[in-house]
Amino acid sequence: MIAGLDIVATGVSTKSARVTLFNVPFDAVDFASALDLLIELAKGDRPAYAVTANVDHVVRFDRDPAVRPLYTQADLVLA
Prior knowledge:
Elements lengths: L5 E4 L7 E5 L2 E4 L3 H13 L6 E3 L2 H9 L4 H5 L3 E3 L1
Parallel strand pairs: 4-5
Antiparallel strand pairs: 1-2, 2-3
């Protein structure tokens, strides 16, 4: 285990784990797996969304509590 990283299961798929880095949850998937998950979500019968984090988003996540649910409720969080 790497210090400072927490790994938990996500609601997206049992194929991925959610890693918390700088208090922001990220799905630990490679490019091909991300594509597969996005296709799976698109074929689903409910609305779904993915977010792509960058440094600005990490800062906003930390400073603005209103931003946090956008990540914690996302079906897929990528960096």
